[in-house]
Amino acid sequence: MRRHAVWQSTGLRNALILLALWEIIGQLGLVAGGALPPPSDILIRLWQDRGDYPNHIGATLYASVMGFLIGNAVAIAAGVAFALSPALLRLFRGINIAAFALPPIAIAPILALTMSGMAPRITLAALGVYFVTMTATVIGLSQADSRAEDVVRAYGGSRWTVLRLVQFRGAVPSILAGLRIAAPNAVLGAILAEFGGGGRWGLGTYLLGSLGRGEPDRLWGIGLIATLIAGLSYAGFALLSRRLLGATKAVTLNTAVPTGGTASTCLSARVRMALATVLLPFALWWALIKLSGAPAMIAKTPGDVFEYLFLSQGAAAAQARLLAALAETLPITFIGMAAGLAFAFLLAILSRLMPRFIEAFMPVALITQTMPLVALTPLLVLILGRGPSLTLWITISVTFFPAFVTLAQGIALVPKSAEDLPRAYGASRWTEMRMVTIPASLPYLFAATRLTVPRALLGVMIAEWLATGRGLGNLLNQSRGYLDYGMIWSVAAVSVILSVVFYQLVVVAERQVLARLGMATPE
Amino acid sequence: ATSPLTMQAAWINDAEFAGYFLGMDQGYYTDAGLDLEYLSGGPDVIPESTIIAGRADLALTTPDTTIKAITEQGAPFKIIGAQYQKNPIGIVSLAKNPINEPKDLIGKTLAVPPVNVISVEAMLKMNGIDPSEVNIVPYAYDPTPLVRGEIDASLDFTTNVPFTISQAGEEATSFLLYDFGYTIYNDTVVVTEDVLAEKRDLLVAWLSASKKGWEENLADPTVWPPKFADTYFKGTGRSIENEVYFNTAQKPLMESPEGYFALTGDGIEACLSALGEVGIVGSADMFDTSLLAEA
Amino acid sequence: MRQPDGIALTGVSKTFTGRGKVVEALREVTLACPPGSFTSIIGPSGCGKSTVMRIALGLETADAGEVRVAGQRSLEAARQGITGVAFQDAALLPWRSVRRNVEVPLEVLGRTPRAEAAQVQAMIDLVGLKGYENSLPGELSGGMRQRVAIARALVTHPQVLFMDEPFGALDQILRRQMNVELQRIWADTGSTALLVTHGIDEAVFLSDRVVVMHANPGRIAGVIDVPFDRPRQPPLFSDPAFHKVCDRVAEALHGN
Amino acid sequence: MRQPDGIALTGVSKTFTGRGKVVEALREVTLACPPGSFTSIIGPSGCGKSTVMRIALGLETADAGEVRVAGQRSLEAARQGITGVAFQDAALLPWRSVRRNVEVPLEVLGRTPRAEAAQVQAMIDLVGLKGYENSLPGELSGGMRQRVAIARALVTHPQVLFMDEPFGALDQILRRQMNVELQRIWADTGSTALLVTHGIDEAVFLSDRVVVMHANPGRIAGVIDVPFDRPRQPPLFSDPAFHKVCDRVAEALHGN
Ligand SMILES: Nc1ncnc2c1ncn2[C@@H]1O[C@H](COP(=O)(O)OP(=O)(O)OP(=O)(O)O)[C@@H](O)[C@H]1O
Ligand SMILES: Nc1ncnc2c1ncn2[C@@H]1O[C@H](COP(=O)(O)OP(=O)(O)OP(=O)(O)O)[C@@H](O)[C@H]1O
Ligand SMILES: Cc1ncc(C[n+]2csc(CCO)c2C)c(N)n1
Ligand SMILES: [Mg+2]
Ligand SMILES: [Mg+2]
């Protein structure tokens, strides 16, 4: 009991130190020539603006809460279905990744045109949470202890009983990690949808109105309120997770090797499966367009995009522009991927080695997840310029968080008894991490990688759109203004296809490595 | 009985649309037989898309994107009026590092919304400047980089940003693209051909009610913005002084001997020729001036 | 009609292809346990005892041969609540208390643990864990965890009971006590029992027949019948006749 | 100066506050193992044997009392490679092959397993796992896994050796064999050994002293010295003098 209180106060102390540091930096104008306001200015401004906030907060809260609930309900149900049927998971891979990697600037306007009222906001918030929670559910369910599963199966338990008694409870910490990532995503999704929705109320709308006023303290105030909404939810799930974690950890490491599982079926079945996997996303795309009833000039089917890129009059020009943009975007994307992963891994390892430090850092991490980059970019540009370092920074901030939380959760789930061994030989914390903790959480490390890689492209595109004016991001934004929907859909399709390819590469590596180490693969 | 009509604005609620707010508050639209629904805009709202999707009957647009959409996408648009006779978009810079004319931009960093890049490049060419001599970067309507000197100038509404900059303790200077050859309208009133055919009388009614609103609003630009403080301007995050400045600054850009929303032969000609420089080849039949004549 | 055997394996073979090597874990294992009989399997480490059990339970598929539990396929028998099992590893659910772990088989079989609370408590008392009902597995010693697994195996009154070295982590006294209790429960329910153990004396004390296995390939090397009357009392452990049977088992175990 | 005790616990107490209940696992346990001595701990399940070991290893902190290993604090001794340990649970790393599991202590201590490949192989051979070097733990039987843990405990030639029921899952013959081998290695290295076991005969055969613990609260109930000469040979198991000592241990274990 007392240890807990002390722990909390240390976390609090570190957070206060951070805040004091920020105040000093802000007051002295040390960062970006004073473009970073000190917390006191932000608070004063918040107080002055207090009359404006209730309506805005109400609208954003409503959309993000609804999106959070709906998105997560779908995600958990889908995660369960995917865990039960790997074939289904493979079939839906393209769709899943599309939901995660599609640029919000591309979908927000289309949602606004095809839905009305709060629906576009709720949808974008739900899209923001779906993939992370689904991934967390699948990894959690797949890492269930096979020894306990054997007990249930030995009593004739059905697949469902195994799921209910063993897998689901075992997956709870993982799912809670997913919900923690989902919280800021839902808030950000709701805000981004406001940019394209033209409504009167919402923190995003407020941000837009304030954007042109060059008042960073207002922008930070809005960002902090959004962070607070996400942070409360994050903290709630983190607390719940901490309470449940101890009793979820296996007492001893499970050594059982997963059984071969899906025996490779005949060739024709595999070909059919592969074909379906590729075709399904396109079929769904086509169906959604047809169902939405959106006008053909705006809503392009896969066929339209094909025609635009290969058959139409301007096909050659369109292709050339697309390829030129890709050539600018891809190289930095790979670097961004590596940087995002490295940062996430570093944080996750530090969260074990220096938990207090990371606890104090969490609010900062949350700000990067909820503060729309439109508002942050002017500041970043002042600090980092408009070169590759800015692109990397933005890519890292768009990618690191889900990977970090997932990996940290995996690390936290390693049974204590596994670490007894190196400890008994006087291993340093780092040796312990290297020899036991990291290998034991390898399935989570791969899940984290799968969360990072498809998003790197999105990060680079956002940086291009907001700051560098190059590549795919710029092409997308320009095309929006020109109502060049053929190009918009082409960019969206290309970015999703590339993301799927990156993702698939990780899946292949994951399968090989985990199989060699005798671990269960979720994918 | 009134008939429903929906309009899509080009931006969030600010003085740019004060005439419409006034018209709604004063019941001018109702009097004209309209039940007007007003949709606010924003940076990610593309007004033309809204009318294509049938979400609105008319939209306020920038003519470059509208005419480009007609010529390149075959969009069935007609322009039936123009709120701004002179496009308020201009190059804004700090007085202490002034950019007073296009050639001052050489070697400087200019922030431009990606959609407007071709307009700026056209204006530069018209003034004998190679666009590659200007470092053009994206702009997202936040003047902070300009105030902090990270960029030398930005492309924005000259009716608005100079006020913001003065609030930040700097003095701004600006010039209109219009005054350097890029002679286009802005906030053009656009409808689809279908709507034009079906709701012609409603559109005429809208034009005449809107004219009335703008006349009254601009009679004294300082009077009306404060009246919207608790309605249309509530919670936008902007200040009433800002709107008053805006309202005052936009007056000369809207006025025309032919009245508000005028589409004159010369004006259309100037607009089309400027757009021609950008490679957007429009024609006079994209404009329908007949409604204004009735309004 | 004759009642089907409690457990019947016919010509079961199983080869594992592991990373390190290929192991012929079972070759042509045939074993029939008449209903109500008590059979022990004894054999060197790695000879395939656990594999026999896992195949009989339907957790592992044999490469060849047939398996019947109470005349049915393993999974069907399991689904009817006929079987009970204690694994070599306790395999408890870490988030469930001792009581809730013991209740698992009841839940799997769709019975209401609430209705059988008395039985659950009786099993917990039987294995000497009274007072630990609400403890989590992580708060128990190794031997205590194993005892929870025993209680869990017995809680359903199984007609066919499989136990894989259930007493390995218990001290002598507790082990003897558990032996006696197990015999009592087995006799009361008239169940067919298959016990894997390393204790020759334990095997002889409890069983009607002791099956001796040899390794490489795993196979049955001999079956020794144990003739003593039931119920058997602890003094039997020091009976010379008892020792003679034990010696015969040891002989079969160690050499031909 | 006198050499410090190999293992010294002084007045060690430990209470666990679990979800289910509060357990006084150890009360005032004092135990000194002279350097080069062999001590066994025997006691009922849950009496605190593993807790004694874990506290001695520094894996658990005592509420009161002092712990010294070779005169130093546990962690320091561990860091110098003085200690070796086999846990009650084999605690193998599932993703490492048998060989790589045996190498773990070497790696932790910063030694190069490559350089000690012969020693690693010797330990694997010793526990009878030749041929399984590349198998993953999941491909081994329960007893085989436990043997990997034994090999791992011995691979560093530890000066102070802790073993928690290392032979629980082994058959009798193998167990006897391992007893003899353990005695040999212990004598060769002159190490101090602390063995937790449930086998009275095993404890008496191997030890200089058998420590008998009682439960609730966990405490030392008696220490029985074992006077037999070294090296002891398997025939000792059937020596009447041996049985007498065993009986004394059993008495201390069960009685008052
Ligand atoms: N999943 C597996 N993959 C590969 N080999 C396996 C697997 N399971 C068991 N084996 C091998 O099969 C053989 C028999 O194993 P089993 O577990 O049945 O032995 P056991 O008789 O129960 O031994 P113990 O008394 O040590 O528990 C062993 O050699 C083991 O290495
Ligand atoms: N982490 C823990 N939390 C709560 N109680 C614990 C914990 N670890 C051990 N105990 C309790 O401490 C007591 C002693 O446990 P310990 O593991 O030392 O027993 P043991 O003598 O090794 O028994 P066994 O022979 O069964 O392994 C037990 O009653 C157990 O319930
Ligand atoms: C005060 C004010 N600021 C920005 C815009 C929007 N805007 C300015 S330029 C441009 C691109 C189209 O040419 C857009 C969307 C506005 N309407 N009013
Ligand atoms: Mg076994
Ligand atoms: Mg123990």
UniProtKB/TrEMBL annotation, chain A:
One of its GO terms (biological process) is transmembrane transport. Residues 57-241, 326-509 form the ABC transmembrane type-1 domain. One of its GO terms (cellular component) is plasma membrane. SUPFAM superfamilies: MetI-like. It is found in: Cell membrane. The keyword Zinc does not apply. It comes from the Bacteria. PROSITE patterns: ABC_TM1. Gene3D superfamilies: MetI-like. It is a multi-pass membrane protein. Transmembrane segments: none annotated. Keywords: Cell membrane, Membrane, Transmembrane, Transmembrane helix, Transport. PANTHER family: ABC TRANSPORTER PERMEASE PROTEIN HI_0355-RELATED (PTHR30151:SF20), ALKANE SULFONATE ABC TRANSPORTER-RELATED, MEMBRANE SUBUNIT (PTHR30151). Belongs to the binding-protein-dependent transport system permease family. This is ABC transporter permease. It comes from Marinibacterium profundimaris. The lineage of its organism: Bacteria, Pseudomonadati, Pseudomonadota, Alphaproteobacteria, Rhodobacterales.
Automatic annotation (TrEMBL), chains C, D:
The keyword Nucleotide-binding applies. Keywords: ATP-binding, Nucleotide-binding, Transport. Residues 7-240 form the ABC transporter domain. InterPro entries: AAA+_ATPase (IPR003593), ABC_transporter-like_ATP-bd (IPR003439), ABC_transporter-like_CS (IPR017871), ABC_transporter_ATP-bind (IPR050166), P-loop_NTPase (IPR027417). GO terms for molecular function: ATP binding; ATP hydrolysis activity. It comes from the Bacteria. It holds the Pfam family ABC_tran. The keyword Nucleotide-binding applies. SUPFAM superfamilies: P-loop containing nucleoside triphosphate hydrolases. Belongs to the ABC transporter superfamily. This is Nitrate ABC transporter ATPase. It comes from Marinibacterium profundimaris. The lineage of its organism: Bacteria, Pseudomonadati, Pseudomonadota, Alphaproteobacteria, Rhodobacterales.
